[in-house]
C-alpha cells in the first residue's frame, strides 16, 4: 500500500514553455500533498504544501506564479512550471500524506530539463 | 523555522560493520522524525521513524535514537551490507503542518 505515482518521469522542453507534472496517490486518499525540488547530490527542498480543495502554501522564496499547484481531488495534485527556464531544470518529487498522521509517501520523481 | 543538520555527509564502512548517522534539529516543537533511504535517481523510501514520546526504536538491523533535550537523533545500521549503500536523509516534522524539513543527506558506501 501507500503508492504514489508521478507523470511524466522525465521531460525535456524548450525555454519559455510550460510543463505540467502529475502526482497521484494510487491506493490511499492524500489529504495533503507536498512538492519538493532536488538538485543533483543535494537534499530535498520543500516547495509547497497542498491540501485538497485549498490553495497551496508556498515556502519562502518559491514563486507561486511560477510554480502553479492544483490539488483538485484526494488522489491528484499537479505542478505546472510556467515559462520554464534552464535554471528550473531539476528533479521534482511529490509526496502524499494520508494513511498515518505524519508519514509521507514519495512519488518516483520527474526529471525536468529545460533547454 | 526548523533547521536540520546532518553528519557526516559521506560515510564508508566495511561490510558487516555498523554505521551511525546523526542529525540535530532546532525547533523544540518538532515531534516526528523519519529516516529515508534514496538510491540514485529513485524515490526516497521510509526506513524507520520515531515520535517524540519514544527514546528508541528498532527494526531488525536498523535503529533510531532520539534525545529531545539535546534535540538530536541518530540512525544506527548494524551488520551493514552492500545493498545498504545509498543516500540517507533525516527529517523533522511538526504536528499541525506535517511539513518535513530534511537534513542534507549522508552518502553511505558499504565496501564488500
Element string of chain A (H = helix, E = strand):
EEEEEEEEEEE
Report the sheet-strand fraction of chain A.
over 45%
- Tell me the radius of gyration of chain A: 13 Å
Mean pLDDT metric of chain B: 95
**Counted beta strands of chain B:** 11
> How much strand of chain B?
over 45%
Percent helix of chain A = under 10%
Oligomer classification: heterodimer
Total strands of chain A: the figure is: 11
* Separate helix tally of chain A: 0
Structural class of chain B: mainly beta
User: Could you say which overall geometry of chain A the principal axes of the C-alpha atoms support?
Assistant: globular
Treating each run of at least 4 consecutive H or I residues as one helix, how many helices of chain B? 0
Rg of chain B, Å, rounded? 13 Å
The biggest sheet of chain A amounts to: 7 strands, mixed
End-to-end separation of chain A in angstroms reads 37 Å
Question: Secondary-structure element order of chain B, as H and E?
Answer: EEEEEEEEEEE
Most extensive interface, chain pair and sizes: A-B, 23 and 24 residues
Q: What separation lies between the terminal Cα atoms of chain B?
A: 41 Å
Q: Low-confidence parts of chain B lasting 5 or more residues at pLDDT below 50?
A: none
